[in-house]
Amino acid sequence: MNLNSLKNIPYSVLDLATVLEGHHAADTFKTSLEIAQQSESLGYNRYWFAEHHNMAGVASSATAVLIGFIAGGTKTIRVGSGGIMLPNHAPLIVAEQFGTLASLYPNRIDLGLGRAPGTDQVTAMAIRGGNFNSAHNFPRDVERLQRLFSVDNRGSNVRAFPGEGLDIPIWILGSSTDSARLAAEKGLPYAFASHFAPTYFEQAISIYKNNFKPSEYLQEPYVMACVNVVVADTDEQAEFLSSSVKRMFLGVITGKRELLKPAFDNINGYWDRMEKEAVEQMLYYSFIGSKETIKLSLEAFVEKYGVNEVMSTSHIYDQQAKLHSNKLFSEVFK
To answer: Each residue's pLDDT tens digit in the chain (334 positions)?
Structure first.
């Protein structure tokens, strides 16, 4: 193993704007800004938000608005979407929104695109209406968006102002193998949601790399993997803090979603054997422990899969513990 395998790997943050028990979305946005500012000072590369809807514990539904808030409160870190669920929106509206963001914060905005609804089927119907099956149009809508950003679109009857002619990097997001082929075909960077969908991670990045076609945007395949991260001074402290994220995923599995709970002892009192196995399967790509512990496992992960960038998501209830985890994680790469 190359013991310096992390030295040149960029590291980033995915923020779901998680709402804590006993708090409100307004509190979440303040803590997100604090973490983003700290991340910038620690050398993190990107700070992304994910679009979700109808989830009381996730306050990132107005994703573009949050991106503007964080970009306005920072100076150099790239800020973007991980992602915008494109079938929920008309490509023109996305082009205008991100064109506005890129005009306000030049060379700092990323546009990650996903094809899933980011919610349940009933809510997806409420968002999409007659376009409920628009996920099937995802490849075409990506092309429409690229055209709207292109200077070649200036002769069209439909143009994005602002947006046209701006250099806004587009990423394709995936949680299965579907989007891997699209990212490869279009020569775009690929970000995989291995933090909750580990099953197809290895297969998807293999498809992406093996079928990648160089483009004007990217000459070689570029994979960013999102993983769950909880780092503390000791393995025991990290395991204790991780009880919050484990209970959160238990809520996903059982359909009993809650606001993020404080850390607690004896997680085994909250699940049965099958639920435990299901949670641990979803959290397969998680790095929980001391800095020394996760460094070894993260080096092995990066080397095994040829990951170009690592994005961390950390569901830690205590803000000071979360800031400390964020700091320790950055030190792993140095």
So the answer is: 454 579 899 999 999 999 999 999 999 999 999 999 999 999 999 999 999 988 889 999 999 999 999 999 999 999 999 999 998 999 999 999 999 999 999 999 999 999 976 566 776 677 666 565 655 689 999 999 999 999 999 999 999 999 999 989 999 999 989 899 999 999 999 999 999 999 999 999 999 999 999 999 999 999 999 999 999 999 999 999 999 999 999 998 998 889 999 999 988 888 999 999 999 999 999 999 999 999 999 999 999 999 999 999 999 999 999 999 999 999 999 9
User: For the domain bounded by 11-233+286-332, which CATH number is listed?
Assistant: 3.20.20.30
Global model pTM greater than 0.85: yes
Residue spans of the domains in the chain: they are 11-233+286-332
Long-range (24+ apart) CB contacts under 8 A made by 158-166 are 158/92, 160/92, 160/95, 160/96, 160/99, 161/96, 161/99, 162/96, 162/99, 162/100, 162/102, 162/103, 163/95, 163/96, 163/98, 163/99, 163/100, 163/102, 164/95, 164/99, 166/99, 166/102, 166/103
